[in-house]
Specification:
single chain, alpha+beta, five-stranded mixed sheet, 2 helices, Alpha-Beta Plaits
Length: 100
């Protein structure tokens, strides 16, 4: 399955003070508001990881939000790259996965 040209699937890695501040749930809520599909989870190294899939404009808006995060978060760095292999998997919603 390939994505329509106006859709994209991107992998995000967010570093900074992003765990224990409601970042995952806030990102999930924003993704649902924007109709972006995918998932989010904490990583053992203290970062938050996510895959965002949907219309390019909505995914870009989610990335812009992710650069700020919720009020208690302090995003130091965000790495955005194509989500290799994830584009072939259509997501039904936006899940909060167990830490990995």
């Amino acid at each position: 399955m390939t994505e329509p040209s106006d859709h994209r699937t991107l992998h995000l890695s967010i570093a900074g003070r992003v765990q224990g501040v409601g970042y995952r749930e806030s990102l999930r809520a924003e993704a649902l508001r924007l109709c972006v599909r995918g998932w989010v989870r904490n990583r053992r190294d203290g970062t938050v990881e996510a895959v965002a899939q949907g219309p390019a404009e909505a995914v870009d808006a989610l990335i812009a939000w992710a650069r700020r995060g919720p009020p208690a978060a302090r995003v130091a760095q965000i790495d955005v790259r194509p989500a290799c292999g994830e584009a072939d998997r259509p997501y039904a919603g936006f899940e909060r996965l167990p830490s990995g």
